[in-house]
Amino acid sequence: MAEGVAYTRRALESAQRSESTWGLQHLTTVEKTLAAQADPTARDLLGDIVATRRSLGTSPA
Q1: Which residues lie closer than 8 Å to 42 by C-beta, 6 or more apart?
Q2: Closest alpha carbon to 35 in 10, 16, 3, 60
Q3: How far is residue 14's CA from residue 33's CA, in Å, rounded to a whole number?
Q4: How far is CA 19 from the centre of its chain?
Q5: What pLDDT score was predicted for residue 60?
Q6: What values do phi and psi take at 19, rounded to 5?
Q7: Which residues contact residue 31 at a Cβ distance below 8 angstroms, ignoring those fewer than 6 apart?
Q8: Structure confidence at residue 7 (pLDDT)
Q9: Which of 9, 24, 35, 55 ranks highest by number of CB atoms within 10 Å?
C-alpha cells in the first residue's frame, strides 16, 4: 500500500505542476481504490486528488 500511495502522490504532484487534466483523469481509477481504504495516508491522498480536481475545474471520468 505504501509504495502505491507514494507513486500516486508523485503522479498527482506531476499533474499539479503541469496543470494536466489528462493526468488527473488517469488518477480516477486509483481514486476508486483509495476510497475503499481505511489507511489515513491513502485517505489524505484521496482528499488531495479531489481538491486538485476541483481547483483545476475537472470532473471524474
Answers
A1: 1, 5, 34
A2: 60
A3: 20
A4: 13
A5: 58
A6: 50, 45
A7: 46, 49, 50, 60
A8: 95
A9: 24
pLDDT at site 58: 63
What is the C-alpha end-to-end distance of the chain, expressed in Å? 24
Contact 52, 30 (CB under 8 A): no
Amino acid at 42: A
Torsional sign, CA 28, 29, 30, 34 = positive
pLDDT reported for residue 59:
61
pTM: 0.84
